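Support request, please re-run this one:
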Amino acid sequence: MTMHAKFLAAATAIIVATPSLAEEARLSAVYSLPATNDLMQSYFAFVDDVNANGAGILQIDLRGGTEALPRNEQMNAVSRGIIDLYFGPAGYYQRQIPELTPLDAASVPADKLRAAGLHEAIDAGTRERAGVAFLGAMGTGYNFQFYTITEPKIDDDGTMDMTDLKIRGGASYDPMYQALGIARVDVPAGDIYTALERGLVEGIGFTTIGVSSAGWQDFLKYRIFPTWRQGNTIIAANAAKFDGLTEEQRSYLMEMIEKHEMLAYDAAKALEAENTEALAAAGVQDVVLTGAGEAEITAAFQDTFWVNVASNLGEDKAAEYRAIVDKANGS
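Re-run finished. Output below.
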């Protein structure tokens, strides 16, 4: 063999023996909240961070929000592998994927939920039902409460009469609203201003953030306490797409998700304080229910919540989820 032939043979051997570098992964993503919604800013920060530091490893391509894909089609698109990632409320899809529901009963930051095993338990259920991987809880740090246009009617026993009030709320609010006698009106977040302006609703069930930045204080004049549920905005992925990433790519993505879960928590707490200040400046009055009034609101959520989970998932599965949530909340 000539020297040239030996060189070529050696070079070929090196090429064969050297593993090929994985191509940069590109994940498409959609979101279901308006881009101007305060909650979306944490998602945008997450995407920017992933893309800025993930060259050669992983990039996220934002396809847009409901203008790109209607809200009721987004999770189906992820399940079918048409879109890789979903950003937004889990509540929009809890009838379709009831395994997402237990997240609502949590009251602690995402790191405690993950440590208690809630992420893992939800992920197992969503994979089996819909081929969807549950990756992160971006909705800790804020809660839900009622806001009304007119002054609430407080009965002699201290409870608030909400019978037949037309209050905005998603499908996941049904059990609680029914317990309180509320007439639930399903209005996407992007249409709340118009619904209030046209008198289609008399109030809203919404988060402790985002109200003032959306301008809804133009109509809403009362903020009701207690709060009754933690946020449930999430990151979900097509399971096959996520599993098909290399170990390096999955590790990088999950490192970023866990980082931004807690940054989102901190951001939510700051936004909550800003919202409170802005609403007070706009003249929105706080109505703080105590005693029987507070207990009624709390019970309307808690007493119906796990009953609803059990009706959808069975008693054993509901008990399994509740044990994990109780462990997290007590940590």
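Residues 22-141+232-270 form a domain with the D-Maltodextrin-Binding Protein; domain 2 fold (CATH 3.40.190.170). The longest strand covers residues 222-230.
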